[in-house]
């Protein structure tokens, strides 16, 4: 083996690096100039076949250990290790790591002649062996000093990772190679020192200081990669040096800080980044130096120099010059990687000094406008870290920049900003209000952030109970005005204000200055706001908390004194309606239904427009909700229909005012609304199943109110059918009450008296209005609490292969078949369904759907049906309107007389579909 070449002159280093190093990455197989012996092609072919067989045995977990050992012996006896043999050694190490050390010891004699071969073999064996292999000191040193530079680099980089070498020997070898002429060798030795420092096995201060000082010298190396690794060594060994001597800890900490700061202006971006990474590991630094790092001008510290332990002022000035403006340069660097690293270093440094944290915060505020998202994120994470350690002291001058981040176009940036808002401690009411406004703007600009914004409001209220008490009056005025319709109901803003209000006393039993009505309002938005308290309680616990705090508020029919001529909308008996699916319905529907009845309970008909506007908003909100649980869609359909009924009830109730207020309202509008109300209550009774006797009574009472409303203002004699229907429903209600042994409501009792008296009017053929309005004063909306599962009866209808461009052909006077695809939901054979076909001239044809004749059963049934249409006209074209209707069997009154059609009133189960027909050309 030839002796190592002498160190080349400096001007040849770059050429040698290109020839020997740049083509050899850290983990690439090292190469040297040792030629490989030529192989006979026949022998090579045989060996390839043998290698393939060996590999199959090695990777098979069922191969006996004796066989594996035999393969290993064959490989180690081979005079030449080829690429295929090395691959087999790697497979052996991965699948049989217990044999790695044995293979390593067996290969040492075969690799003495070639450093390259030795390194390749070692790399193959140690790839799957995590504990490291034992290696003789002499073998290790000879390999490190071998002629192959790439092999030397590999050994230095992997000695501490893949081999068990004595720490003292490894340290000596690594320190020696820090003076190697090849930069990649110097880099590898420095990286080896970094790994050695992590093992923490050196207590000799002289050795530690020697490593530190040598790395400090290499901070001025001409090669970027060497300076990069030198920074890492300075940081790691410098911290060990500072921790090894308590008396000198401050001195060495400042020394390390100054050296790292001196690299903040290095020409290499990666070196600058690593310098700030090192700064982020500092455990103690003089406040003088920390402040100096934020000022490019060298500060005069006076007698503070004594705290540094320096013997001369010249040495102190030298360190101060290295530190001056280092962090400023980092935060202003042209590369975002450096700016991010500088922000990250402040996470540690700001908790070392309150004064430094205050100055650093001013600079971090400017970083919030950085072009890079990752830099803005890191700046905010640093502020959050400062906040956790009590170092974040926001001032009024910071608010514009800080709160502006709440409307940043990056969602993650806004999220981290709200993390800070959740923990911030403010000492000024103006700052508190600014935070509220900032979060409101976030909510308006980015509705998708609602859940986390609500959580931020919850934390803000809990952390600033005193400030909430100071502004609760103006909050309650705005909330009450919104619920009463005096202002536009911005549901997100109102929910946020309620969260802020009810959060203040959350951790304190005393609600203080918070009006109990705020908790009552919050109940109506339970589903929407419960996410804001998920860190402390679930929805059920929140509901219990709100109910407890709002017990002093409530509305009852007995609390309202109705004077003659002072008509109000129906008020609520007991609690607000509560709709449930299975055990408890999705809370979104529950909260909306509570808001409906709360509002209706408070409004007089003189502000009906506001009532209707509020109900429309609720409907719009409800239609935007999505539900995943079983039965939630059915319950939502019930709620929407109930809302429509409340709206119509409010409109009709207007007509009960004294005549002087009805000068602009005609009977046509009343008839229209009464007709709509009548249809809606029939749908409520006919299109939903699963009612208990109590729920059925509530719905039937709505039907009684509808009939009474029609009878109280219109001439009695012309509405005899309505009275018959009223009587039939009343008898049904009376029967249900007897079955349950329940008491009727005041409205039902008074209505029964009027029905008894009205028979005299019928016999006398009276045409004067009957005073049903007296009993209407006693009507109240009832509470809905579904204990079972509510199901919605509905249908879907589609006409196959038909549109305006592809009409169905027909011959005038002959029937035509209309192909229908029908889907039924929750409909059984007991229900009577009809296909309704409306012609342009108003004529209607009914086709009965015999469900027993169609296949399928269960909650959803799909089938095809060809409906015959008999009344084909002489016109060339015709458009039919087709839909599916359900007979209302609950009304025990005289059946409707229709030839060949349903005997009871129908409610529609789907939207009308248009069918286009075109007469066949006779020519």
Principal-axes shape call: elongated
Characterize the largest beta sheet: strand count, sense, and whether it forms a barrel: 6 strands, mixed
- The end-to-end distance, rounded to whole angstroms, is 108 Å
Question: Radius of gyration from the CA trace?
Answer: 43 Å
**Unreliable residue stretches:** 1-46, 302-312, 552-604, 659-664
Our count of helices gives 37
Helix/strand-derived class? alpha+beta
Helix content: 40-55%
Into which percentage range does the β-strand content fall? Answer: 5-15%
Q: What multimeric state do the chains show?
A: single chain
Q: Give a count of the beta strands, DSSP E runs of length 2 or more.
A: 15
Mean pLDDT comes to 77
Mind explaining what this structure looks like?
This protein starts with 12 loop residues before the first helix and ends with a strand. Helices cover 54% and strands 8% of the residues. The strands form five sheets. Strands 8, 10, 11, 13, 14 and 15 form a six-stranded mixed β-sheet that branches. A three-stranded antiparallel β-sheet has the order 7-9-12, with no helix packed on it. It contains 37 helices and 15 strands. It is elongated and about 120 Å long. With 923 residues, it is α+β, with helices and mostly antiparallel strands.
Keywords:
single chain, 923 residues, 8% strand, 6-stranded mixed β-sheet, 15 strands, alpha+beta, 37 helices, disordered N terminus, 3-stranded antiparallel β-sheet
């Amino acid at each position: 083996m030839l002796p190592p070449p002498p160190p080349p002159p400096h001007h040849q280093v770059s050429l040698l690096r290109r020839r020997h190093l740049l083509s050899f990455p850290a983990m690439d197989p090292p190469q040297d100039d040792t030629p490989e012996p030529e192989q006979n092609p026949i022998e090579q072919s045989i060996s390839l076949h043998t290698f393939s067989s060996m590999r199959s045995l090695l990777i098979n977990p069922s191969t006996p250990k004796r066989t594996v050992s035999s393969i290993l012996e064959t490989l180690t006896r081979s005079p030449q290790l080829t690429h295929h043999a090395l691959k087999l050694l790697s497979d052996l190490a991965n699948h049989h790591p217990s044999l790695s050390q044995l293979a390593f010891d067996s290969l040492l004699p075969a690799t003495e002649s070639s450093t390259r071969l030795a390194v390749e073999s070692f790399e193959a064996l140690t790839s799957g062996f995590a504990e490291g292999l034992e290696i003789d000191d002499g073998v290790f040193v000879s390999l490190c000093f071998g002629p192959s530079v790439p092999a030397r680099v590999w050994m230095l980089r992997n000695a501490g990772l893949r081999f068990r070498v004595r720490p003292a020997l490894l340290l000596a070898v690594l320190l020696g190679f820090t003076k190697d002429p090849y930069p990649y060798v110097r880099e590898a030795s420095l990286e080896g020192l970094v790994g050695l420092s992590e093992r923490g096995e050196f207590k000799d201060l002289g050795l530690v200081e020697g490593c530190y000082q040598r790395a400090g010298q290499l901070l001025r190396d001409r090669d970027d990669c060497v300076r990069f690794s030198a920074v890492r060594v300075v940081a790691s060994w410098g911290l060990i040096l500072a921790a090894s001597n308590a008396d000198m800890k401050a001195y060495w900490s400042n020394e390390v800080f100054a050296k790292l700061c001196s690299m903040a202006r290095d020409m290499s971006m990666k070196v600058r980044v690593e310098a700030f990474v090192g700064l982020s590991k500092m455990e103690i630094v003089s406040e003088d130096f920390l402040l100096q790092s934020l000022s490019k001008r060298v500060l005069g510290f006076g007698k503070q120099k004594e705290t540094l332990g320096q013997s001369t002022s010249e040495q102190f000035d030298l360190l101060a010059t290295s530190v001056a403006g280092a962090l400023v340069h980092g935060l202003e660097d042209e590369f975002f990687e450096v700016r991010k690293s500088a922000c990250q270093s402040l996470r540690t440094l700001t908790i070392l000094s309150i004064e430094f944290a205050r100055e650093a915060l001013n600079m971090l505020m400017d970083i919030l406008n950085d072009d890079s998202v990752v830099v803005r994120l890191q700046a905010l994470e640093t502020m959050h870290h400062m906040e956790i350690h009590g170092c974040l002291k926001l001032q009024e001058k910071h608010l514009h920049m800080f709160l502006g981040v709440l409307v940043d176009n990056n969602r993650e940036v806004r999220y981290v900003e709200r993390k800070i808002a959740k923990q911030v401690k403010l000492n000024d009411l103006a700052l508190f209000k600014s935070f509220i406004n900032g979060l409101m703007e976030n909510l308006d600009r980015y509705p998708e952030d609602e859940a986390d914004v609500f959580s931020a409001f919850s934390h803000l209220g809990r952390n600033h109970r005193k400030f909430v008490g100071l502004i609760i009056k103006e909050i309650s005025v705005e909330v009450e005005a919104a619920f009463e319709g005096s202002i536009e109901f911005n549901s997100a803003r109102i929910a946020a204000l309620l969260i802020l209000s009810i959060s203040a006393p959350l951790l304190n039993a005393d609600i203080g200055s918070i009006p109990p009505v705020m908790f009552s309002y919050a109940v109506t938005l339970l589903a929407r706001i419960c996410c804001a308290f998920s860190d402390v309680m679930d929805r059920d616990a929140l509901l219990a908390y709100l109910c407890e705090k709002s017990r002093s508020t409530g509305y009852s029919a007995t609390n309202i004194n109705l004077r003659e001529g002072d008509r109000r909308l129906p008020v609520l008996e007991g609690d607000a309606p509560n709709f449930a699916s299975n055990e408890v319905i999705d809370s979104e529907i529950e909260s909306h239904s509570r808001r409906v009845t709360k509002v209706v309970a408070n409004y007089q008909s003189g502000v009906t427009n506001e009532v209707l506007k509020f109900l429309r908003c609720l409907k719009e909100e409800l239609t935007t909700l999505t539900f995943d649980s079983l039965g939630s869609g059915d319950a939502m359909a019930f709620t929407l229909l109930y809302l429509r009924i409340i709206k119509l009830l409010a409109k009709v109730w207007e007509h009960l005012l004294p005549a002087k207020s009805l000068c602009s309202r005609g009977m046509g509008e009343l008839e229209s609304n009464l007709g709509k109300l009548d249809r809606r209550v029939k749908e409520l009774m006919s299109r939903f199943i699963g009612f208990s006797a109590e729920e059925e009574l509530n719905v039937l009472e709505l039907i009684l109110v509808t009939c009474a409303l029609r009878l109280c203002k219109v001439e009695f004699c012309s509405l005899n059918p309505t009275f018959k229907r009223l009587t039939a429903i009343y008898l049904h209600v009376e029967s249900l009450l007897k079955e349950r042994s329940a008491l009727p409501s005041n409205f039902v009792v008074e209505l029964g008296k009027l029905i008894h008296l009205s028979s005299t009017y019928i016999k006398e053929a009276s045409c004067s209005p009957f005073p049903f309005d007296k009993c209407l004063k006693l009507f109240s909306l009832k509470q809905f609490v579904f204990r079972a599962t509510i199901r919605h009866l509905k249908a879907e209808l589609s006409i196959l292969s038909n549109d305006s461009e592809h009409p169905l052909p027909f011959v005038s006077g002959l029937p035509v078949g209309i192909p229908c695809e029908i889907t039924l939901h929750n409909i059984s054979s007991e229900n009577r369904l009809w296909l309704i076909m409306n012609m342009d001239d108003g004529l209607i044809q009914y086709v009965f759907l015999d469900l027993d004749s169609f296949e399928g059963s269960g909650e959803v049934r799909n089938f095809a049906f060809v409906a015959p249409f008999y009344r084909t006209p002489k016109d060339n074209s015709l458009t039919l309107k087709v839909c599916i209707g359900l007979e209302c069997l609950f009304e025990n009154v005289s059946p409707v007389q229709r030839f060949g059609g349903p005997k009871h009133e129908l409610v529609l189960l789907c939207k009308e579909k248009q069918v286009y027909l075109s007469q066949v050309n006779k020519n």
